[in-house]
């Protein structure tokens, strides 16, 4: 390409990608019904990311931008502080400044170990953490793999039968606040990893990924899904059986996937910016919910199905 055109072309491409990222996703056969969803406002906080319920059905719990994990205790009590990922809380005041995320922590993916009640946390800056059922200050689980520190810990899932945690590190170059650069740069330094709770070892399962994001284990534990956000697709890694170790595209999507969560039927809900997509265990799109005008649901980071509700 002629050098006099290369810079304008690069700027145009970047602007196009950013515009696409923040535009509603339109999927054939989708249902325009998220505009009527009831909002459960997270008060005095911004940036709720992941949702999780404990083994007693309590919650939901969610992590917010100032490093806290909040628990919903009903209409009368509302949201209360359950845990924090960083002990450096003196500067973590509200309204919160994103430039303090690396100090205060930024909890993203959340998962309960239903066997013991521990809550595992993927903190974008502080790595993999855990806090007991009583809450409080989370303790460190892992911060690096193969000598390379985590740079953007994103999401996780737990295989309670095998005692392992699967999680993603979205990039070894870009931090969470640089996610737009991560998308448009073509960065492929992301990793999918496994933490063994008995040996306390971290193993890299997949590397060279383009913005690995959400993680979900299949109902029978035979395979693992990981959202490769920059490539607008979800990958499937077989963990057991004759295909063990093999990876392939599970589904291509018309947008950037975020977190993945499995329902009780073994199906998967994928957050697709302003849409919610339900997939079969074979990657077939079963249902898509949208708010075309973005009146109610402007940004969706995760969809959790519980007792017939989303």
TrEMBL record:
GO terms for cellular component: vacuole. It is found in: Vacuole. Belongs to the strictosidine synthase family. The keyword Signal applies. Residues 154-241 form the Strictosidine synthase conserved region domain. This is Strictosidine synthase conserved region domain-containing protein. Keywords: Glycoprotein, Signal, Vacuole. The lineage of its organism: Eukaryota, Viridiplantae, Streptophyta, Embryophyta, Tracheophyta. The keyword Glycoprotein applies. Signal peptide: none annotated. Pfam families: SSL_N, Str_synth.
């Amino acid at each position: 390409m002629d050098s006099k055109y290369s810079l304008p072309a690069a700027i145009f491409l970047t602007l196009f990608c950013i515009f696409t990222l923040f535009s509603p996703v339109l999927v054939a056969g989708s249902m325009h019904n998220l505009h009527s969803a009831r909002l459960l406002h997270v008060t005095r906080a911004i940036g709720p990311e992941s949702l999780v319920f404990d083994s007693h059905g309590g919650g939901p719990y969610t992590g917010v931008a100032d490093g806290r994990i909040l628990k919903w205790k009903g209409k009368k009590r509302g949201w209360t502080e359950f845990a924090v990922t960083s002990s450096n809380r003196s500067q973590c005041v509200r309204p919160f400044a994103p430039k303090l995320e690396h100090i205060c922590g930024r909890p993203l993916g959340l998962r309960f170990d239903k066997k013991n009640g521990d809550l595992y946390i993927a903190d974008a800056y502080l790595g993999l953490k855990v806090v007991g059922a009583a809450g409080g200050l989370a303790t460190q689980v892992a911060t690096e793999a193969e000598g390379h520190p985590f740079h953007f810990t994103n999401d996780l899932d737990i295989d309670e039968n095998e005692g392992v945690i699967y999680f993603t590190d979205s990039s070894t170059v870009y931090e969470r606040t640089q996610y737009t650069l991560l998308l448009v740069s073509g960065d492929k330094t992301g990793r999918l990893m496994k933490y063994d709770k008995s040996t306390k070892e971290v193993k890299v399962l997949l590397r060279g990924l383009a913005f690995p994001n959400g993680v979900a284990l299949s109902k029978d534990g035979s395979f693992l899904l990981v959202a490769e956000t920059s490539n607008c697709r979800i990958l499937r890694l077989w963990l057991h059986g004759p295909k063990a170790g093999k990876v392939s595209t599970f589904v291509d999507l018309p947008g950037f996937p975020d977190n993945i969560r499995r329902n009780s039927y073994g199906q998967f809900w994928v957050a697709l910016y302003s849409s919610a997509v339900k997939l079969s265990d074979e990657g077939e799109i079963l249902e898509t919910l949208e708010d075309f005008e973005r009146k109610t649901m402007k940004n969706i980071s995760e969809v959790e199905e519980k007792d017939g509700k989303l």
